[in-house]
Amino acid sequence: MSTRDKLLLAAQEALVEDGITHVSARTVATRAGVNQALVFYHFGTVSELVAAAARARTGASLDHYREQFAAVDSLTGLLALGERLHAREREEGNVALMAQLMAGAQRDEVLAGAARHAMDVWRAEVESVVRRVLAPSPVADVVDADGLARAISAAFIGLELYDGVDPDGAAAAVTALERLGVLLEVVEDLGPVARRAVRARLRRVKR
Amino acid sequence: MSTRDKLLLAAQEALVEDGITHVSARTVATRAGVNQALVFYHFGTVSELVAAAARARTGASLDHYREQFAAVDSLTGLLALGERLHAREREEGNVALMAQLMAGAQRDEVLAGAARHAMDVWRAEVESVVRRVLAPSPVADVVDADGLARAISAAFIGLELYDGVDPDGAAAAVTALERLGVLLEVVEDLGPVARRAVRARLRRVKR
DNA sequence: GTCTATAAGATGATAGAC
DNA sequence: GTCTATCATCTTATAGAC
């Protein structure tokens, strides 16, 4: 593995395991087993290293989930994928990495750019699923798939951040969402009834 | 204002405006207009200062929202409160502060304690609303109010974190959630029908 | 309680030898 | 590309005068 890649991997691990506050040229270089000066040779600044690490990770991690996203064809399926994703994220920490990136991005335009990019990659993936799943439903008329995908992604980031601080609490949150799945099933069962109700309500709302 | 309070306020502002990575005894003391050594005299460590600042802020901020939480009596009302809350949070940054706290808490037990406490204060407030709003609904049988309150709170934290990086994207997310409000109205309208459907589904699910 | 001074270490970044 | 200095700066934290 090249030094460059060693640094990228080490930066990713550092973000996930230690958080953005403990990331420095020296801590990352030590973790990578390379010299500290090489951070600046290969990336110029620490922020650029972190940004590059985040970009590499989001690409790779979404490649892994892509098939599963593509296979989802129902609301309950989307929720189930969310649960599996959370279970895997507890080990992988791809989303936790994004949370750390965003936290550090508040006053760092380089990190902010990487954060927006990461968010956009996730948004695109979630959006296509949301669009597909809701297409046959009356709900499609009311839903803004782009915005909803952003909301779902942001919510997920908050959840993974919470998990790092209180795993039991986060587990309770996930379990609660699981149980809400029953309601989704009801909505799906209700198909025609709900469709009429939504249509009626929409006529009233759209002035 | 006492030096202690100046430091607490400065630490809160620093967290919201600059983020946890830029918080140090010196930056906060400068912002407070006091000597750097006083951080250690009053709080012992920087982490203790940050933790105290976060505790003070969550208490004060929730006092402000408490009446509004108490006034919510419907699902749509809860969603509407969420929107108003987000609008105010864009200026106040109480939730953004929690996000920064959680990001820094990954390897810092002092911050982690404060983060869990802040989360618990929010959870309690949200939980009571969720419980009250859903009590008359058939949904109450399926919902775990504690876990759901945690999920909602965590989602909100993710949203405010996202807002700091991409305000337009976050605004789109909020707008999408607003539009989902129409669906909530439908569910509320559907009352009796939904009740029967949920009951039926529950009989099937609970083996 | 507040200040100055200072220790002891970490940090970003560069120059120059190999 | 990699290493060894080396800087100037920033950091936490303490001792001691006021």
Describe this structure in words.
2 copies of one chain form a homodimer. The first copy, chain A, is mainly alpha-helical and 207 residues long. The first copy, chain A, has helices spanning 3-17, 25-32, 37-43, 46-71, 75-92, 94-104, 109-134, 145-165, 167-189, 191-205. In chain A, helix 4 packs across helix 6 (94-104). The longest helix of chain A has 26 residues, at 46-71. The model of chain A has no long low-confidence stretch (mean pLDDT 93). Chains A and B meet through helix 6, helix 7, helix 8, helix 9 and helix 10 of A and helix 6, helix 7, helix 8, helix 9 and helix 10 of B. The structure holds a DNA duplex (18 and 18 nucleotides).
End-to-end distance of chain A = 62 Å
Oligomeric form:
homodimer
Strand content of chain A: under 5%
* Portion of residues within helices of chain A: over 70%
Poorly predicted segments of chain A: none
Largest interface: A-B, 64 and 64 residues
**How many alpha or pi helices of chain A?**
10
- Alpha carbon gyration radius of chain A: 20 Å
Q: Could you state the order of secondary-structure elements of chain A as H and E?
A: HHHHHHHHHH
Tell me the major beta sheet of chain A.
none
- Give the CA-based shape of chain A: elongated
- Structural class label of chain A: mainly alpha
Number of strands of chain A: 0
Mean pLDDT of chain A: 93
